[in-house]
């Protein structure tokens, strides 16, 4: 069957035209307000793809709007200091040379069913993350916990097989689930946690609804009487839902999606402070000539990252050749600048790899609106080198299923997290980068050794491991990093007190309408 390719010059012209319009649109980019305004009511959130209860424990972006509504973590990171703070765990103590961690738990917390929260629920939550069938990206870290010993109802000791520098990443990302209803979580029949809102109803493909938890352990919270998360699979309809008042908040829109709201003071958009959205081009090493490092390096030199940042993200974000944001201890400015846009060098490498004139399919996650614009710009850039790109848009859940099963085509566009805190979480947990089994099919003993060293050491040894990981990533380019940004939150200015975790899960404890 003959493949049809989009006209690259026409696509690029349209994209750049959009960028020019954005530069003068006057769309507001500001924080969404303080938490001191009064008001209650039901907050209406809209997103392109439906929630996926089956992947609730695997850090699926479609669930980021609801995870912290229903569930609480053991600890949560302070955004300024990046140090863990108490949540369901009130205090902790290391012993045995970093192999045992004892946690003291809150004694005044109940699940939505009314049952008291105990250490046994922490045991069940860790076992759930360890369960391979749940496909958690933190399963490797959770697997280090080899022994769990409760010391009464509200104290627990975790014994590790070896020290791990990213254990508190696990604690923030892991929802504490009700052990008695855990079996019904994957089906969406029940979602029972200790969080500020109780699950009420899920209508697949349409919406999921939550009501205020009157027994929430944070006194006087939440302020909202409920939350509704609606699925609106068409981008134009999603933006229109804001303009018409059907939605109060839409996470994840890119700046180029917001032209319809230009100059409208009823809305404001902000990038979160997390740098948790690292946009990348994935390479399937099972598809020739992507099995050749020279070909992948050619693609990396051929992509104009600065234009992607300026057109798609309106200048917000950091152009980079590596996954680490500037806040990461693994970040080095000289290495991050390695793949400056260099079409001449790209053509040399393509010639060496025998890649000119080839056609490849590029899939992208259409539930992340920015990827559609990025795909068109990359299609143009690579087309100028003689690589024809066919675009394949996939909805979020379909994209995620193909990604986890290794059934994506030669190339794909997506965003990843896990790089903004402990670097070990990226190479042990994030599916594109895992040293054990990643989505590209890349294996390398040196990469695995550096990942383990980064994971289990500190100080100079860990920094050396970070540099070695960066060197291998730059040389192998099985993941082509492009731009790091925060997530976007576009909301009515009537919404106050909106917050998020360091992994961009929405936090609505303090949220108000009015």
> Which quaternary structure do these chains form?
single chain
Task: Summarize the amount of helix as a percent range.
Answer: 25-40%
DSSP helical segment count = 15
Rg (C-alpha, Å): 23 Å
Poorly predicted sequence stretches spanning 5 or more consecutive residues: 1-39
Which strand order do you get reading across the main beta sheet? Answer: 14-18-13-17-15-16
Q: Any idea what the shape is? A: globular
What number is the mean pLDDT?
89
Return the structural class. alpha+beta
Strand-residue fraction? 15-25%
Largest pleated sheet: 6 strands, mixed
Intertermini distance: 57 Å
* Number of DSSP strand runs: 23
Give a structural overview.
With 514 residues, the protein is α+β, with helices and mostly antiparallel strands. Helix content is 29%, strand content 22%. It contains 15 helices and 23 strands. The chain has helices at residues 8-23, 67-70, 119-130, 139-142, 167-173, 235-243, 293-302, 305-312, 333-336, 343-353, 370-384, 396-405, 423-429, 445-456, 459-476; strands spanning 42-47, 75-77, 84-86, 89-95, 100-105, 145-150, 155-160, 197-203, 207-212, 226-231, 249-251, 267-271, 277-283, 318-319, 359-365, 388-394, 411-416, 479-485, 488-492, 495-496, 499-500, 506-507, 512-513. The strands form 7 sheets. The chain has a 6-stranded mixed beta sheet. Strands 1-10-9-8 form a 4-stranded mixed beta sheet, with no helix packed on it. A 4-stranded antiparallel beta sheet has the order 4-5-7-6, with helices on one face. A hairpin with a 5-residue loop joins strand 21 and strand 22 (506-507). Helix 7 runs antiparallel to helix 10 (343-353), helix 13 crosses helix 14 and helix 14 packs antiparallel against helix 15. The longest helix has 18 residues, at 459-476. The chain is globular, with a radius of gyration of 23 Å. The N and C termini lie far apart (57 Å). 52% of the residues are buried. Residues 1-39 have low confidence and may be disordered.
